[in-house]
Structure formats: C-alpha cells, structure tokens
Amino acid sequence: MMLFFDLVSNTIESVSILAHFAPLVLFGGGHYLSAFTTEQLQAAAYLSLQLFEYGFAICLVFFGFDCFTMAYLIVHSKFFPRFIGVLLVIEGLGYLVNSFSLFLAPALQARIFPYFAATAIAEVALCLWLLVMGVNVPRWKEQQAEVAGAAF
Fold it and tell me: Which site among 81, 83, 97, 147 is 20 to 30 Å from 46 CA-CA?
C-alpha cells in the first residue's frame, strides 16, 4: 500500500510541477504569444500557479495516506520508536485536513495552514532518528534469526 500511495503521490506531484514551468513559457517571448495581451499572459501565468497549488493538494492527500501506512509499518516493525509512528499519523491527518480544506473551505485553509506546519516534526524526527540512531540492529538480527529458524 505504501508503494502505491508513494507512486500515485509522486506522479501527481510531478505532473502538477509542470504548472510551475508554464509561466516561463508564457513569458518566454515566443512569437506565437503576440496574439495575447500582457494582462492575458499574466492571468494565464497566475492560473497555472493556482493549478499547481490544487494539484499539490491532491498529491498531499495520497501522501497523507502514505504517512498512515508508514506509521503502521514503523509501529509494527519494532525497529523504530513508536512515537515516530504516532507523529506520522498526526502528520497524515494534518495533510488530509489541509488538502480537503483547500477544496471545501479555501478561506479557512489559509488561516489554518500555519498550524499544520508543526506536523512536519514527524518527517524531521524520522530523518534525524535514521541519521543519528539508525535501525535497531540487535532487534533486526534477532528477527532475522527467528525468520531463518522458522524457514527450516
């Protein structure tokens, strides 16, 4: 499931990033753009940036579910502290609330977004844990021995 959510999230994000490139094309000064007024080109550039925002919000819905599956794996793996899994669940909820509020209540989303920035603690905690502590190697070897013993 995590692989599915990662692939879908990254695919949607990759496509929506094209909207960031659109203003460069619109303001690139191509001869075919002379058919449009400056105001029309500016409006089209702004529209493309807004489309990126909505595409990214859709991407974050899938990333929120990815956080849930990662949290499940971390809690059940016993290689990482469970609090990181709990933080990832909170982060996943934050991404879902943020994305759905953009579609359902855009004015509310603009006011609540700063509060969801704190949910990034989960990603930072996971990265720092991997960099500083790493995986619980004795537990890894113990489980590996259990699996090898069960195979024979």
Answer: 97
Predicted pLDDT at 43: 94
What's the pLDDT at 124?
Answer: 92
Domain count, the chain: 1
Say if pTM beats, i.e. exceeds, 0.85: no
Domain containing 125 equals 2-151
